[in-house]
Amino acid sequence: MKPPQRGRGGGVRGGRGLARGGEGSAVRGSGRGGESGRGRGPGRVKSESDGGIKGGSKVLVTPHRHAGVFVAKSKADALVTKNLVPGEIIYNEKRIFVQNEDRSTVEYRVWNPHRSKLADAITTGVDNIWIKPGVKVLYLGASSGYTVSHVSDIVGPEGCVYAVEHSDICGKVLMNMAEKRTNVIPIIEDARHPAKYRMLVGMVDIIFSDVNHPEQAKILSLNASYFLKSGGHFMISIKANSIDSTIAAETVYQMEVEKLQMEELRPTEILHLDSCEEKHACVFGGYRLPRK
Amino acid sequence: MAMYVLYESSSGYALLEVHGLDEIGQNTEAVRTSVSDLSRFGRVVQLTAFHPFESALDALNQVNAVSEGVMTDELRSFLELNLPKVKEGKKPKFSLGLAEPKLGSHIFEATKIPCQSNEFVLELLRGVRQHFDRFIKDLKPGDLEKSQLGLAHSYSRAKVKFNVNRVDNMVIQAIFLLDTLDKDINSFAMRVREWYSWHFPELVKIVNDNYLYARVSKMIDDKSKLTEDHIPMLTEVLGDEDKAKEVIEAGKASMGQDLSPLDLINVQTFAQRVMDLADYRKKLYDYLVTKMSDIAPNLAALIGEMVGARLISHAGSLTNLAKCPSSTLQILGAEKALFRALKTRGNTPKYGLIFHSSFIGRASAKNKGRIARYLANKCSIASRIDCFADGATTAFGEKLREQVEERLEFYDKGVAPRKNVDVMKEVIENLQKQDEEGKEPVDASAKKSKKKKAKGEEEEEEVVAMEEDKSEKKKKKEKRKMETAEENEKSEKKKTKKSKPGGEEETDDGHSTKKKKKKSKTAE
Description:
The structure holds 2 protein chains of 2 kinds. By secondary structure, chain A is an alpha/beta fold. Chain A has a domain at 112-287: Vaccinia Virus protein VP39 (Rossmann fold). In chain A, 22% of the residues lie in helices and 27% in strands. Chain A has 7 helices and 13 strands. Chain A has helices at 16-19, 117-124, 146-155, 168-180, 216-227, 240-243, 249-262, and strands at residues 28-29, 60-63, 69-73, 78-82, 95-99, 105-111, 136-140, 160-165, 184-188, 204-209, 228-239, 265-272, 280-287. In chain A, the strands form 2 sheets. Chain A has a 7-stranded mixed beta sheet with strand order 9-8-7-10-11-13-12, with helices on both faces. In chain A, strands 1-5-6-4-3-2 form a 6-stranded antiparallel beta sheet, with helices on one face. In chain A, helix 5 runs parallel beside helix 7. Chain B is mostly helical. Chain B has a 5-stranded mixed beta sheet with strand order 3-2-1-4-5, with helices on both faces. In chain B, strand 4 (94-97), helix 5 (101-111) and strand 5 form a beta-alpha-beta unit. In chain B, helix 1 (28-36) packs parallel to helix 6, helix 11 packs across helix 12 and helix 24 packs antiparallel against helix 25. Chain B is elongated. Chain B starts with a strand and ends with a helix. Chains A and B meet through helix 4, strand 9 and helix 5 of A and helix 1, helix 3, helix 6, helix 7 and helix 18 of B. Chain B: Residues 432-524 are annotated as: Disordered. Chain B: It is found in: Nucleus, Nucleolus. Chain B: Keywords: Nucleus, Ribosome biogenesis. Chain B: Belongs to the NOP5/NOP56 family. Chain B: It holds the Pfam family Nop.
């Protein structure tokens, strides 16, 4: 039986209930690994949802090669980002508290590659994600805002994330999240018509697209022509079955890459994300890059 | 020929004039190279006019219009004011570049200003967007983002139909405050009793109620001044003449010590405070009742405002309460007992917060568990209706309450309760009757949606459904039922335009649209 989210009836509750209030005790993940998240009853089931980190162990947090991202090393490594809004979590992810020399705690949130394609790309070993502190990101297909929250952690207070999501239900969750994080600008609108939200978006450095639509290349290029600066970068996640489920995945990726190249979106890296999901790939590239 | 460009930003409309670039050539490459360099671009494009939005509401209107491609009056007056006049019959010597051709045709129809939106214009607009904060001198670096943020929030809220009145956070806070207030009033009242008993100890035994005690002590003030004349006043407060006489008697023979006037004033002020707090608590309770009827009328009609509010606050929000299965709702509030029982493999608790509704008390010991489960199921239904349906009607809640009563009677006397299908049908009929009495009758679509409703009921019964949806989980059934309830409530709300196509859609596509809706909901 899944315990209700806000544990107020006391009882045994890991993570949220106890960790809130910022206990400064050394370094710990939140307790009760398997319980929070899926909650498959009292039995501890090793689910994919915990992102690889076990509770209560000693953890060492070091910066990742990509600026703004960190790695938490313990028995199993995990990707984490520094929480922009300490004390708030989006949906049951674990938090890691690290104590500094001056006794202040820094809070990190675990980033689960099974839930987020960007995290998957990072753990698979992409060269450059282009998202770093201070940049402006346009995120198409923000959904409930899980990855958006981590991107917002990375870009920090100087950067900003324009999160575009069409669905009402996800939009509500996204907006709740955006109320706490002031660098996320929620736009509940169809990404196929960037003209509709042109008043709300400035020029961005990076476009991140996770819309899974057969015409996603066109959507990306249209948005880029409105909002992506020259020399800016993009990342697009391709689900082969969304484009065309009858042909081979490799062919689909090639087709998408060609469509992008016709619109001045030059791919620099293509990553196959097979560790967490099948038939998914990620393409990174640049827009109107100067000819060398 | 002069060329202007209109740029819509979140802080206002900007009109810019394009120099230097050959109009006939309209060379996009040239624009691109100039864009990258601000100083060069600054010579190509210059700001003619900027019209900031008057207020947040004004900005929201503008952004809505812009997203539809419609021209507002403000935009029109801005353009007519700042662009050269278009003379009748003569060909205008300028043109206006826009991002969207639809808006362009609107503007042209209304004001005869020629508009164009080709690649050239789009490149120019890119440049403007990139360097916009340099063009407008009053804008400081963070301002543009802030205005974007505010505008985006209000735009998105309108899109998801965010209703301020239906914020369940108010109820959660109110319930917490109510509990805190109760504790505080109690401790203060105890304090008053102790304090005043130094002066008049016997009063404690005569007046038991805290609130009354405070009032009486304030009225009596100094007990030596008590006379027969005070009886009417005391009777008014205590409600009982005998008690009033007792008080007077006790006052005469009291053992308590005298208090100085200053001390008495202090006690009085404190007693007044307690009374004020108690009055405020009453007002808060009324506020809670009103709020509950706004955000969760069915839940309130079924189990009462207090229990309903407690459930919502325990779950965290109305949406959380609606999401959890009814077995969770049944033992919300008894987590400690639950997990202890699960660990030691004992018996799990039968009820949590639900216990405080009147129904559980009325069941015999054997049936308490059954009623608790039944009640939790109905509460789940009620909370889901409240969370996802558009209208605020208590019709469902009342019928659900009747069902619980019937179930209680069944355990008592063996009177068979009505089937759920029939009860729900009644509710829908009543709602439709109300609608027919209203202005626009929706017979056709109503009947169609009624049929759908009847179909929905059959599935809701735990009987093996004849439809293809029998494999759906119970929650999905509920949600679909809510959707059909939604359809009906929409029709009730006289939104004929929406309900008619909605009703036709359903009967045409059958279950396909519903399945689509379900898929989007499970994506949560």
